[in-house]
Write a structure and sequence with these properties.
Blueprint (H helix, E strand, L loop, with lengths): L4 H12 L2 H6 L4 E4 L5 E4 L1 H6 L4 H4 L13 H12 L3 E10 L3 E11 L7 E8 L1 H45 L3 H22 L13 E3 L1 H13 L7 E5 L7 E3 L1 H18 L6 E8 L3 E4 L6 E3 L2 E7 L6 H4 L17 H11 L3 E7 L2 E8 L5 E2 L1
């Protein structure tokens, strides 16, 4: 005889589920049954919903959140699709809990039909606004610098390209490939300088179908012949990934910045940079407007085995003029974050001694759903 969800969860609570571990987590974790009633809450969830487990258990979620809350929509989709979902930038509001800006992760609970376990990570609205303002300020800084330096940059680039063309005439094989690479890169830099007004808020971003592996391959080639000559590159790609909805030159700029930083952070002996891609089902970003959500299933990771980012700088690393380099200007990662934001994507940092990872979640072609 099959257990009902409450019985199944009670059995898990009795020994199969590490309740003590969940209760110790600082992030709220709770289970909602098929009738949208609370089946379990850890201590952090009790605090989030401003009530004890004795008060909340078997009570309807509607007593704390309005029926049009995005959490109800997420629960329904998890049950319908049968796989986990994540949403960034979700606002949860209710008279009993106030207003919270969170990231939601939800998945079906095994052996409990219709029960969904939800974990949330809270971020204040002020933090989100500050991040958006930071990106805009970084864009203005870069645009102003480009306007002043465009003429001075183009002149030496023209000379570099001309010298590379002369060298190309007198070389063959691998040397000829390197001179061609110089020409291609000078052309790309000139295009970037010409189109720096794209970084202003008033200019729409031109999107196209971009093969992310072609972008990463190009960046690898550049880095392996430049800042990353001393490191070992490890590539782990999912060949079945669909095209990214983005701008090729700007994506090259993003990953070139990240790989260059990784190369500079990696040890001079034994340095490793890992580039990987994967399809992560269910990651979405809630956009402003009438409930529109952008799916971000394509995940790209840039990882190095350097000393890591100091903990006190991690939350500010994408701010303009913040840098870990003695002679750094602190604009590279601010521009990276702005470009990713313009693509409708998300960038995250995970860092500890010996391992630093930048995780980028990007939209694919035809990945917008209402």
């Amino acid at each position: 005889m099959n257990k009902n969800p409450s019985q199944a969860f009670a059995a898990a609570d009795a020994g199969l589920l590490p309740v003590a571990v969940l209760s110790a987590l600082p992030a709220p974790v709770f289970v909602i049954g098929p009738n949208d009633r609370f089946l379990y809450l850890n201590a952090a969830a009790e605090s989030f919903f401003a009530g004890s487990a004795a008060t909340l258990l078997d009570r309807s979620l509607e007593d704390w959140l309005p029926v049009d809350s995005p959490l109800f929509s997420l629960l329904a989709q998890v049950r319908d699709r049968g796989h986990s979902l994540s949403e960034y930038g979700v606002s949860l509001e209710g008279p009993k809990i106030g207003t919270h800006f969170v990231t939601l992760d939800a998945a079906l609970l095994p052996d409990s039909p219709g029960a969904v376990v939800v974990a949330l990570q809270e971020r204040s609205i002020a933090q989100k606004i500050d991040r958006q303002l930071t990106h805009r300020n970084a864009a203005r800084s870069v645009t102003a610098m480009a306007s002043m330096l465009a003429h001075e940059v183009k002149n030496p680039l023209s000379g570099i390209r001309g010298a590379a063309q002369l060298l190309e005439l007198n070389n063959e094989g691998s040397d000829r490939q390197l001179t061609r690479l110089i020409c291609d890169e000078t052309d790309r830099i000139v295009q970037l300088v010409d189109s720096m007004e794209m970084f202003a808020d008033s200019q729409p971003l031109e999107h196209e179908a971009v093969n992310i592996h072609e972008v990463l391959g190009h960046v690898h080639s550049l880095a392996a012949n430049g800042a990353g000559r001393h490191v070992k590159f490890v590539e782990r790609y999912d060949p079945s990934l669909p095209p990214v909805r983005g701008n090729r030159n700007l994506l090259i700029q993003v990953f070139l910045n990240l790989v260059k930083n990784a190369a500079e952070a990696a040890p001079s002996v034994g340095g490793v940079i890992k580039l990987s891609t994967r399809y992560r089902q269910g990651v979405r970003l809630a956009l402003s407007g009438a409930g529109e959500k952008l799916k971000l299933p394509l995940m790209v990771t840039v990882e190095d085995n350097g000393p890591g980012v100091p903990e006190d700088l991690q939350s500010h690393l994408f701010d303009p003029f913040v840098t870990t380099k003695p002679n750094g200007k602190g604009l590279g990662l601010a521009l990276v974050a702005k470009i990713v934001d313009d693509h409708g994507g998300v960038i995250e940092l995970e860092s500890e001694p010996g391992r630093t990872r930048f995780l980028l979640y990007l939209p694919v072609i035809s990945a917008v759903e209402d």
